[in-house]
Amino acid sequence: MTQDPEYVSVSPGDTVTISCTSSESLFHPSVNYHTLNWYQQKPGKPPKLIIRKVSERPSGIPEKFQGSGATTKFTLTIKGFTEEDAADYYCQQWRSRPLTQ
């Protein structure tokens, strides 16, 4: 899994886009969806699932976090960035083992 950019500098209110590319398709025919998740991790905290199956937000995750993409190319968009959103963000695939991020 390759993420781009590695680092990003933002101002409050910005829209931030992070891309994630896989070397193989993440579509899993047996479950009929793409096996791509996004996590947010703040210092000293465990990773928090913010997007699953490319674009689904778990309960309690604000709409400002949006996921999109298909096959090998995926995007996380954060709209109206605030100081609270400052964190590390990781994509993670579970199409094949080992799981990678």
From TrEMBL:
Q: Which SMART domains match?
A: IG (SM00409), IGv (SM00406)
InterPro entries, alphabetized: Ig-like_dom, Ig-like_dom_sf, Ig-like_fold, Ig_sub, Ig_V-set, IgV_Light_Chain
Q: Which residues form the Ig-like domain?
A: 1-92
Q: Name one Pfam family in it.
A: V-set
Would you say which domain of life the source belongs to? Eukaryota
Name of the molecule in the record: Ig-like domain-containing protein
Q: Organism, per UniProt?
A: Engystomops pustulosus (Tungara frog)
The beginning of the lineage is: Eukaryota, Metazoa, Chordata, Craniata, Vertebrata
